[in-house]
Every structure is written in C-alpha cells, then in structure tokens.
Amino acid sequence: MAERNTDELHEVQLQGGSDAAGVGKYLLHRAKPHLPPWLGVASTGLAGVLGHWRWGESAAAGVGLTLASVGLTGATWLMGKSTSQQRRLHSAITVAAGSAWVTAACLAGPTAGPVDDLYLIGGPVVALSWNVRMVMRRNVEPTGENSDKGLLAKVGLARAQIGTAKVEPNRVTAPLALEPGEQTNDDVTKSLARLASALDLPRNAVRYQPDPSSERRGELVIVPEDMLAEVVEWDGPSNLGGSIADPLVIGRYDDGAPLLLWLPGDPEAKRNSTHVLIAGGTGSGKGDTALNLQTEILSRRDVILWLSDPKSFQDFRPLLPGIDWAVEGGSDTEVMVEALKAAIPARTRWLGAHRYRQWVPECAEVQDSTEHTCRPDGTTCGCEGMPFLVAWMEEAANTLRALGDDAFTGIAQEARSAGISLVVSLQRPSYDQMSTSTRASLPSVIALGCDPRDEGFSLPEAVIDAGAHPGAWGNRRPGYCYIVSPGIDEARYPSPGRTRAFTVRSVSLMEVLASWVQRNGAAPDPITDQAAASVAGRLYTRRSAGDDDTAPSLGEDDDMDHGQFVDPEDAHIDPEVELPDAEEGDDTPLFGQDTGRKPKPEEARRLFAQALEEFERAGQMVVGPKDFMDWCDRNNLSRPWVSARLKEAALEGRLEPTNTTGRWRIVPALTAA
To answer: Is the pTM of this model over 0.70?
Structure first.
C-alpha cells in the first residue's frame, strides 16, 4: 500500500511533456523533479553578477546585503520550525551559503579571488545534496522506521507499512499494511495498548478497524484529544413532531459527529428493526442516557411508550404525562409483560392483513390506500393506523429476578416483526441474570462505563478488539458510551461518544414535552388497546386516571342513602340476617395446619370469585398463593385450599399460567369464557 502511494505521487511529479524528442525527451522527463535545486544555483550566480553591476562601488549596499543575508537565514530557521529538525537545518545552511555568496559577489565581483571557485564548487554540492535528499525520500521498500522513529517496531509491528494519513480535526486515520504471511490483524489489536503507551494517550484513544476483505490490512485511528470532556446539557428534542423512523440523536461522538440510533427498520436502507440493551454500572450515567433516548422517542408523532420502572419513576417523573402506560414493577410489570405477549400476534396479524412486511411510518396513518387494505375486494378499508410501540424495562434485573432470566426471550424474538422495540436497561447483563437467548435477541447496545471484567457482557468481542474499552471509564466518565446498532457504520462502533446531561434546568422543558405529547402524540391503536385490555383489564384501561381511580367518589352511587362508608368487601352482607352457626373447623388455626374451615362447594366458588374480582378492581392482574394470605386470614381458609381453587379457575379459563411457576394471570371478567 505504501509502495503504491509513493510511486503514484512520484509519477505525478513527472507528468508533463517536453519539446525534446527521443532519448533527450526521456532524460528531460526523468530529470524534471531534480531540476529545481540547479535552477536555484543558476539564479544565485545571476543575482551575483547583476548585483555587482549595480552595487559594486556602494558601501551602503554592502551593509544592506549583509543584513538581508542574516535576516533571510534567520527567517528560514524560524519558518522551518514545523518541519523535521534535519530539513530545518539543511534549509538554513543552504540559504546562509547562498546569501553569503551573493553578498560577496555583489561587493567584490563574481570573479574576484576565490568567489568564482566557491560558486563552481559549492553550487553543485548544494544542488546535489537536495537531489540526494529527494531520492532518499522516495524509498520503495519502507521498513516501518521513518519519521515515527520505529514506532511500529517498538510495539511489535516491525515491517508493517503506514500509508498516507488522513488528518481531520482531532482525528488521524492511517491505512496500515502488515507483513504478508508474518502478521495479521489480530497482532495489531493486541498491540493497541502498547501503541497508546508509546504515544502517551489513553487506551481507547487508539483504535484499529480491520479491512473485511483482508487479514493484513486495516485503518489505524488515533484521537489525540478527549473532546468529550466538556459536559453538554440537554436542550430539547432534535426533531419535534418527526417520525420515529428518523434517527434519534442522543449525544455526540469524540469528533463532534452526532450520536445516532434507529429503532424501526427501513426496507429501502436494508436496515432491520432493533431492540436495545442499555448497560452500565452505578454512576456511569445510565439515567441520563435513558432520558436522552426517552425524550427523543416521546417527541415523535407516531410512537407510544410503555414503561416499567421499579424505582417509582425517580428519573422519569416529569415525562409521565406523556407516557402511555407506566407501572412501578412487581406484579404490574408481570401484567405488562403478558400484555406485550398478547399484543405481538395481534399487531402482526394487522400488519399482514394490510400487506406490510414490517412496520413503516405509513402504518401509523389511516389506511386509505388500495395497496394497504385489509378488504378482500381490494377497496380501501379506512382502518385506523397503528403507531410504533416501545416497551421500556428499566432496572430490568429486578424483573428478571422475579420472572426468570428468560422473561423477555419470547418478546425479544418476536416483537420486531410486530412494530415493537424492547429496551432493557440494567447494570450488568451477565448470563446469570439474563438468558443467552434474550441477550442474543438484543442486537443493539449502549455500553456505558463498567467494571473491566464486564466488558464482554456488553460489547461484541470484535468491537473490544478494535479498541473499545468501557471498563477504562468505570463511573468516572458519566455519559461516556459506545453504541453498536443497525444503521451505524461499523467503523464507528469502537468510537466513544457521550450523551447529554440532564440537570434541574431540564425539568421544566421535560414537562413541556410531556404536555406536547398529550396534545400531539400518537394515541394507542384499537388493535393494541384490545390486546392489552384483554390481559391487563382495569390496570390498562384506567392507566391514566390516577392513583385514586378505584376509590368511589361521593356522587358515584347512592351509598349516602343506604348507610355510606360500608367497606366494599362487606357490601353484600345483610345486617338483619342472623349469624351462621359454628361449623366444623372454624376454630382450627390457619398457620402450621394443612386444614382450615372447609366451606361448601357453592360458597367456595362464590368466595374465590369474589377474591378474584377484588384483585381485578385493584388492578392486580397476576396472583399466586402468597397474595391470598390476608384473604385467607379474613375467611379462615387454608393455603392448600387456595392452591386447589387456583388450578380450578385455570381450567375454567378465569386464570392463565405465566412464565413463573405458581403465578397466574387473571383473565378480565369481560373476556372470560
């Protein structure tokens, strides 16, 4: 590579014709690059002759020529500061010798004393010295030890050849060709730390991008200055009212380029839809990274966001009014996961019926085209559009511990074809927390600072080999990250970026954005609505009514006229009816015994149905034996009895099993068989 570039550059210097013919033309053509020093010698002799004719008898001219000679030599030395020391010295000596001879020739005469001999001997010597320098610069067999003083040899890459470097602001990219049969790209990746040490730079400031078509060629990238050290505050979304299919801007790279991410696929760009893993240790800036991405999502017109956050929305509270469905974790997150599973086939059927192979922005519009109609006769159907759906699982380690390490596996494998992106955020995506199947189904990752031992859980091995090392930051560089995702040039994968910071000044702007979403954002489509409601019931249908939604208002019924303030659990009791007689087992303790009071079958069914209705009214749609402990205390029933009733309810279709053993999802009463 280096040989080819040098030869091409030399050939450019030789281009141009001459008026000579035959051998003379060839010799002149090859001699042209070496003529400038000789032309300089000839010009110097001519200047001496003309100067003597003009100033031969002038004492003042002698003083002026001497001062000019000294000044020109000094200026040459100063201007050569940016060049190599050897070239600077050579240039200064050449100028000093030439100007001194011109001064002597002007005052004494070009043929006086030794002046002419000095010209005839010194002139060719100076010209030849520059010719030799030019020949030495064109080395067709570089050894890797040039102006870098053997840098590559020092790091174990002797005989590797560096081509012409591309210099950009704060970025140098140089093609690298390794010794055929002796060195491979793996040798370069193993030498990056030593190369960074030789250059006195951080480890992640030196990267290597192998050429996919060659095992011995690639590009060496050096970023000498950390331009991400300056904190940039979030100042609002990048594309308010745009489509979720447009890139999401969440920060900047170390060369100032925007840090972009795409969620939906693009059939024209051959880009697949993606799920995102956000991984980073405590203090790495995971919260600000999430806010960058969430504000970008909420600012788009054709997307809705579901959020599970066991931390009670500590970071996301200002955005809650703009989030379609938000739950705090626990059993509510179990319900959301089940609702996602129900929404996937429903949304996929809608896309297939309207002849979409994947979600595109047109899906969110009213379907008024014959190209995308669900009617068999081909006429326009006018169906409501279906927005893109982002399901965000914050602090997902809590959910994975409760539901199992494969809780998201089915969703991650199937949701992309349904116009759904799953975002999973956790500190350490290790295999003991998340199943390998789930991790393999999350193709995009935002890797923030972490423990050096956890790098392999976040980033692909090839990206780490290319120079990406989030472990070098730990929690000392909040917001620093690497992004691996479809749509991003693979050469960018090992390039660090930094997300924008959210401060107290950002809160009011986030609240304004949430208000904008309420007025202008997408509304859930009927297909997704029905699928979620069929699983979550009131937890979903009354999701925006507030925490006190289930409490009846004073004007909601006529309790004021029939002895208000009656506990809803006791509303069916007639205070005039005599208490029932004692039954066998009423005095048996609940705990430590397998038996309790055994109600008659009819009463048992009524009591259990009532319990399920109470859970459903409270929005708790996933239950198990432990949730019935208080209820058992109130009704003096044993837990084994409850377990038996759960199995019966499952057979009757009132309950459905979840991924977690012993946990059951309540089928809303309005959809029960």
So the answer is: no
